């Protein structure tokens, strides 16, 4: 990697280290509520001098570090869904499949399932069921949806390449492609613990992983497409928006989970 790419990598490491220290605030002690008063991300363009495909991936990592959240629509293995995802300072997810009315919310180490009339009938009144076992639940789903995971894999790949400029929805985006293996894709996730890396590698399956990323002129990931054991496509918008909010249901409307681990999504 050239001197300019190494400079971008050093900048990324410094920003991530600073962010890790800043993340230990009072807001981190509220696991069942996603903070919505976080200062707006910087409007400065994170522009490493290296604008090669690898340099652009480093820039995209900086943008994600700053944004911390986004709204998404997704097609995961053929099933549509929508929601919100926070990747810092805590993991927060809202996920609603197009196939049913049930909603999943993850707030750090707690998960809430329900929010629909069918859940209220099943639970005898409460609309939500809470599960908490000290670990981040549904981490496999979160890793499929996360732009942080995808961009980390692209930045670690030896040969990301620019496919070209394309019109995407209401914007013009640069299309990048990476072909890697499940083992390399998972090993790039240094932010994840080893067990979660192994689960990610298993989920990706044997054979190549082909990752396509579309970035706008701010180096924001507006779409990812990952072809591995399954094909996933995720579109993102509202990066860093303070309007995004995921909050735990009222305690009176919540029933405790019946098992140590939350159930698989229907």
Primary descriptors:
globular; disordered N terminus; twelve-stranded mixed β-sheet; alpha+beta; 30% strand; outer membrane lipoprotein receptor (LolB), chain A; 266 residues
Could you please describe the fold and organization of this structure?
The protein has 266 residues and is α+β, with helices and mostly antiparallel strands. The chain has a domain at 53-237: outer membrane lipoprotein receptor (LolB), chain A. Helix content is 29%, strand content 30%. It is built from seven helices and twelve strands. Strands 7-8-9-10-11-1-2-3-4-5-6-12 form a twelve-stranded mixed β-sheet. Strand 9 (208-215) and strand 10 (221-227) form a beta hairpin. Helix 2 packs antiparallel against helix 5 (147-156). It is globular. The chain starts with a helix and ends in a 10-residue tail after the last strand. Mean pLDDT is 85; it is low at 1-46.
